[in-house]
Amino acid sequence: MLRMNWQRLDLNLLKVLKALLDEQSVTRAAQRLHISPSAVSHALARLRRAFNDPLFVRVGSRMVATAGAEAMTRPLEQLIASLESHLGAELQSTELFDPAASRRVLRLVSPGALELTLIPALATAFRREAAGWSLAIEGFERRSYEGDLASGRIYFVLAIGGHTPVNEVIAARPLWTDELMVLAGPRSSIYDGPDVVPIETVLELPNIYPLPWPTTQNYLDVELGRGDRHRKLMLSLPGYAAVGAAIEASDLVACMPDRTATALRRMHPSLRARHINPPLRSTLSLLWALGGQRDPALKWAGSLIAQVAGQLRSD
């Protein structure tokens, strides 16, 4: 009887083993799994090491399963049937889930810049699709949220940066990539200038800094600090609500993601956005605990968040 430590086995290898048992051919198993024959051969080598058994031997032009591999045929069939039954029931429950008839408090974490872009769009979408849901949003901190997600204290994190590890517990989905822009009003020296401004020029301008995290953790200032360069931060604010009016009434400028700059320009049409050279970009990702996806309500909510984010353009 084959013995091994199941906790250390990559369970994806069992799909390859089942295909090889059924097909008795590396080529046909690869076609069935929609992967390359070399990938199947690599997986078979790992299976052989894991079980300390050849599993298949070549007899003429055929691959013949060893006694140990044959003994696994029935348990594998039972395992796969059980998984298919469970996943089928989960899919059915998801299909039967009616967000309009449900009530939920959805706890998520979001950076402050999204208060002008994604958060209003999410509020609108949830009111339309699930009026009984409440959104409880916490400010994003540059730290790991692995424990918060795994425990269920937080359901989703809208994250910039890789502070929360993606592993067997936490999953991530990129939503968009932002370019950092500098926003200026009519009194700024770059207002009537070219569309692209060198970073050296930005450093000489009086800057507004919307919090929530300090400059030692802001990705722009961290990058500048590596070269011992720093911005002239003349005004720090707790959020983005007053940024547009402050820029409009003074020579101050503010660096921010392009979607946030677009939202502020809609509220303050006189403002102009300039690209920074060299460009600096950041990716916004949606993080969640894999275990939570067994809840059809959370699975639906994650899909809605991704759908709404995909509809928000940067221009």
UniProtKB/TrEMBL annotation:
Entry-linked InterPro entries: LysR-type_TF, LysR_HTH_N, LysR_subst-bd, WH-like_DNA-bd_sf, WH_DNA-bd_sf
Keywords attached to this entry: DNA-binding, Nodulation, Transcription, Transcription regulation
Family: Belongs to the LysR transcriptional regulatory family.
Name this protein carries in UniProt: LysR family transcriptional regulator
Domain HTH lysR-type residues, every copy: 9-66
Coiled-coil segments: none
Pfam families (alphabetical): HTH_1, LysR_substrate
Organism taxonomic ancestry: Bacteria, Pseudomonadati, Pseudomonadota, Alphaproteobacteria, Hyphomicrobiales
Entry annotated with the keyword Transcription regulation: yes
